[in-house]
Amino acid sequence: MRPALVLLQSQCLLCVFSSVCVPGVVGSLPPAMPWHVYCPARCVCQIKPWFSSDSVYHEAPTVDCNDLLLTKLPVPLPPNTHTLRLQSNLLSVLDTAALSGLSNLTDLDLSQNRFSHVRMLTQSSPLPSLLSLHLEENHLSHLHNASFSSLPVLQELFLSHNNLRSIAPGAFFGLDYLLRLHINNNRLTTVDPHWFRALPRLEVLMLGGNPVDALPEKGFVALKSLRSLVLGGMGLRGVAEKALEGLESLESLSFYDNLLNKVPTQALRRVLGLKFLDLNKNHIRVIQTGDFRGMAHLKELGLNNMEELVSIEKAALDDLPELTKLEITNNPRLSYIHPQAFVQLSRLESLMLNSNSLSALHHHIMLSLPSLQEVSLHSNPLRCDCLFHWVTKDTRHAHTERKKDTQTTRAVRFIQPQATLCAEPPELRARRVREVSSGEMSASCLPTIPASSLPSYVGVQEGDKLLLHCRALADPQPELYWVTPSGLRLAASTKNDSKSSTITGPCRNQTTLEQSDSSNKSVLQLQSQDPTPCQHLKHYKLLPEGTLEIRKITFSEAGLYTCVAENALGADTRSVTVGVHSRRKNRKKGAANKKGTFQAIRADAKLELREVGEHYAILSWQSRHNLPSTRLSWQVIFPNSHMPTYTTRILAGTHRFNLTHLQDGTFYKVCLHLGIGDSVRHTSVLLKESRRPRCVSFRTNDVPEIQAGLQLDPQLTSTAVTLLLLALILLVAGQGWDSEPGDALKKSHHAVHQATEASKTVVVNQKMQKDPKQPNQSEKCQLHQIC
Known about the structure:
Blueprint: H1 2-8, H2 10-26, E1 33-34, E2 44-51, E3 57-64, E4 83-85, H3 96-99, E5 107-109, H4 119-122, E6 132-134, E7 142-143, E8 156-158, E9 166-167, E10 180-182, E11 204-206, E12 228-230, E13 252-254, H5 265-268, E14 276-278, E15 286-287, E16 300-302, E17 311-312, E18 317-318, E19 325-327, E20 336-337, E21 342-343, E22 350-352, H6 363-367, E23 374-376, E24 382-383, E25 398-403, E26 406-411, E27 413-414, E28 422-424, E29 445-448, E30 457-461, E31 466-469, E32 473-475, E33 479-483, E34 489-495, E35 498-504, E36 509-516, E37 521-528, E38 540-543, E39 547-550, E40 559-567, E41 570-581, H7 591-601, E42 608-612, E43 617-620, E44 631-636, E45 645-649, E46 656-659, E47 667-673, H8 685-690, E48 694-699, H9 714-736, H10 741-770, H11 777-786
Parallel strand pairs: 3-4, 4-5, 5-6, 6-8, 7-9, 8-10, 10-11, 11-12, 12-13, 13-14, 14-16, 15-17, 16-19, 17-20, 18-21, 19-22, 22-23, 23-27, 24-28, 30-41
Antiparallel strand pairs: 1-2, 2-3, 25-26, 29-32, 31-39, 33-34, 33-40, 34-35, 36-37, 38-39, 40-41, 42-43, 43-46, 44-45, 44-47, 47-48
Helix pairs in contact: 1-2, 9-10
Protein name: Ig-like domain-containing protein
InterPro entries: Ig-like_dom, Ig-like_dom_sf, Ig-like_fold, Ig_sub, Ig_sub2, Leu-rich_rpt, Leu-rich_rpt_typical-subtyp, LRFN
Keywords: Disulfide bond, Glycoprotein, Leucine-rich repeat, Repeat, Signal
């Protein structure tokens, strides 16, 4: 934002102009030349370059008396003096009568002296030609009415770095031609709209550095010609909706180094012609959807040096048709930019994202920026996986566009490509991103919640509102939910195109609570058996993208909160301990923390077997607390043999698990290991007792044996037996014609007996199949010993 710095940052204005701009311009101009006049003792008289407020070059006769420890004005001064420099002396009173004879005096520099009253400068004869007056770093404490009335054509007034505590409403009366006013870095606590009524032509106003925590509504309404306004370093916590009303010509605005916790969207919408906006070094945590909507002429935007910025949401910067440069740098906690954060930025050419905590820049972002020419991603912990395929060397930083069935390739230049390195995965660590091929990157991405997005501990006062931000990028896109200290699971869902939150946890029966506000309607669905935690549900609200809001927090909401990001490939978790502090002055230190910690680490759960089959078992458990490090282990049990133990991680908020791929007819022992996270270090006897594993033993069902013959129902069985008897009788009868009659009768009786026994066997086998197989005596003893 180099063009904006000249207008926005008063602290750097003179430095940049004198050290960069002026030498470059002056280097191409004729050097200073001697001025052959009678010069005051120890002063230097030369013809030097000088620039007007409109940057017009002049050859100015200059008398330079800087750094001479003068206590009075040096005399005599050459009558044609144009610029008089008296910086860094000991002047406290100035005889303006000696200056009245200088009809060409245009620029007077009295900075870094000892003036305590402006009237000591202007009480005598007027200075009709003076255009620029420097009074920085003096001892001015108050400006009276009409303090500068003897300077009728003054265009630039520098009063910064004084001790100004008050300014009379008519202090600037008579300055009808003033273009630039610098009153930054003083001790003003309020901004009076009356000051500016006498400044109809003012174009630049520097107010930063004054301890003003709030701007009045319509405070600048008289400044119809103002083009640049600097409000940096004032301690502003918010900006009223009408604070900037009336600034019809404003093009440049700086809120640098304030205490803003959100973008002043409503106030900015009153400034329709704004082109340069500086929000650097504020306390903004989230750039929300539509924060800059309606700023049709914005060209450059700075969102740098924000210690608390963690996320840029969907459509946070949308419909900015003239934005050409976007700077989002040096934000140590910024780890998430939504894939659709930048929408309809058709002219964006430069995107600066270096020195953040970004793991990737989603390829959807690149697709949404058709005019992008350069991007800066160095000094980020970049994760070189599926989300970063667009940047690999085999793509040659090319972005392909399709327009009217024609394909064009547009190259995007990387700023400092040598410092743009992979941090993950381990096999690609410290590799330059542009040297990695797409084949070396994974085709899918596990969810990762950056450590910078959530601190390990957050303290808040009772009754305040708390926002916990959790973000994750992956492919497929992960789903996020929260688990509260009482075990409630808060997950986002969509119902009737409204933003909503679904909560499941230990509550009696299924209940639906509705919460309404001006923007959306939240639906909370609750399921469980204990009503105790549910009385605090009104305090919770799950916002879009994974932010948990706790309103009017109480001691009951203190404890461990866990965010879970999950997709089809896996999951990641991150926990934060919330401590609630009392507002009472005589409260005992640490009382709130102990209460919240105890609630978080007290583990209680009972493991139950819900259903068992031949190859699976469904287990469930309930807990009134958040257990983010829970594990489930299982082992096959055989006497006189050691079998391996298998373990799986249980995500926080999970109360049911389907154990599959088990062996049929086998004894198993399953244990639930309750965990509270690595951040808790307490080892009380109660804690050790509560962390003992909960176990259950069972035997899987047997797979039914496959019968060798046909499986018939009872009716078909009786029919088959009858036909079998008839066949045997006929067979025996046929054989009886060749034998004795007594032998034939015996054979017939024997065949009928065998058929009858066979039919009984079939019927008994079918009855046995209908009943579950009961364990034998040895199996019963073995199961009794295990349990």
